[in-house]
Amino acid sequence: MNTDDFMNWLFDPLSYEFMQRGLLASVIVGVLCAVMGTYVVLRGMAFLGDAMAHAILPGVAIAYILRGDLLVGAGVAAVVIALSIGFFSREGTVKEDTAIGILFAAALSLGVALISTMQTYAVDLSHILFGNVLGVSSSDLLLIGGLSFLILLAVAVFYKQFLVISFDPVLAATLRLPAELLRNLMLVLLALTVVVSLQTVGVSLAAAMLVTPAATAYLLTRRLWPMMLVSASIGGLSSVVGLYLSYYLNIVSGSSIVLTATLFFLLAFLWKRVKSV
Amino acid sequence: MAHTPHRLKIENASIGYGDKIVLHDLSFQISHGARVAVVGPNGAGKSTLFKALVGLLPLKSGSIFIHGQSLGTHKDCVAYVPQREDVDWRFPVTVRDVVMMGRFGQIGWLKQPAARDKQIVEKSLAQMGIADLADRSIGQLSGGQQQRAFLARALAQEPHILLMDEPFTGVDITTQEATFNLLDHLREREVTAMISTHDLNLAASRFDLILLLNHRLIVYGEPHAVLSQENLQRAFGNSLLVMENGAMLVDECCPPDEH
């Protein structure tokens, strides 16, 4: 392949406007998930991320029935779930992972129950589950971009506080940080992240985008903010590479993005193993 | 000095988790700059007391005063060095990052560390003899070095009251001496120190006062008065072994989980 061919290969997909929007959305979501993912990995919230992604199904279903915006429905459901988990596990009444398990199953069941009352649902359901990056409209893109900006801003602004409540909750208490509030804020940010990624990778793969780039970055760095930067780079790059693979190999974009991220993880894992021998 | 308010005053405090009360009706006072050993069997409520003092556990009843004002009025004047098992050693932070966290209380919510904060961090690292380890991951350090990192953090916090949970358990002699050097230094600044320990020997020889606990206050006073066979028997019960020569040992082979 000479240079011209390569350029054509690179720019061909971008001649379609829906591809431009899809690519932009994927990169934003890739970066966002990767940054929030650092806390998911470090705080052991992988299960929570997965549960959250599935738990927004009823919100999406209700929005669909009412012909409202699916993202709004998902957003409302995610925040309700996040705060419910915080509520049930407060002061250790029920263990957090137990609370997650119960709410996750209940929400998923409710979602499926609602969906089963509809008829022409197969296409939309698969889009919700696996994402439909090529169906990103301009207004979707605006919403994805705006929400992502707000979430990343919150992560930057509360960097010190999130670092302390994650690393040393006891120090957080001695510093009189409102730990409960910060913990809930983090759950809400995580929920919103899952909602934003609904369109590009879908609910069933959102958890992978939260965990895989961050886990890769964990292997390569030893401080929090470099971990976030590396994770964001891997997330963004996986989205670009994944989307091109999806275009040329004609496979579902969510899958190719997640598989690309997984490949990066395997490379980092092998590198780490080789280095430590 | 009769009018100096006691730095730390606890009045009829009961502390516990949920419905369970671990410490009953605790009252004592510590004047500024004193070094107090908190001694008692496993599960006696030593960690519980510390957690209440840092505000992690609410009081069921009674009150805690620091400088004459109720707990929580003074932000950030209590520093706590946690037990080793309470920390996630795999977290991606360097030693310097950990020490800098001690400054977060003073830095303010939306601000970056200032030059003064960085200076204090470097000074604290140097004082604990770990300046050369500052860029290492916290997980790469030996147990003793990790403890010194947390001591440096407590120092950077510039506390009025320092709480340490079992700092002498399983650490090397260098760290133990570094800990006492730190305590001597803090005493000059009139920092009050409360330290829980199993080591009756250390408690007797290196502390001003001993607080003997077993779900309630057994006795509080100077070591020679506190460490009588009768008092220790009341605190430790059957775990106390008395040798023929009068030496006393605390034998706790299978400690239950302490909260």
Q: What report would you give on this structure?
A:
The complex is a heterodimer of chains A (277) and B (259). By secondary structure, chain A is an all-alpha fold. Chain A has 14 helices and no strands. The two termini of chain A are 38 Å apart. With 259 residues, chain B is α/β, with parallel strands linked by helices. Chain B folds into 2 domains: 1-77 and 159-172 and 190-259, Rossmann fold; 90-158, no CATH class. Chain B has 9 helices and 12 strands. Chain B has helices spanning 46-54, 95-101, 104-107, 115-127, 143-156, 173-188, 200-206, 223-226, 229-236, and strands at residues 8-17, 20-30, 35-39, 59-66, 69-70, 78-81, 161-165, 192-196, 209-213, 217-221, 240-242, 248-250. A 6-stranded mixed β-sheet of chain B has the order 6-7-8-3-9-10, with helices on both faces. A 4-stranded antiparallel β-sheet of chain B has the order 2-1-4-5, with helices on one face. In chain B, strands 11-12 form a two-stranded antiparallel sheet. Mean pLDDT of chain B is 85; it is low at 254-259.
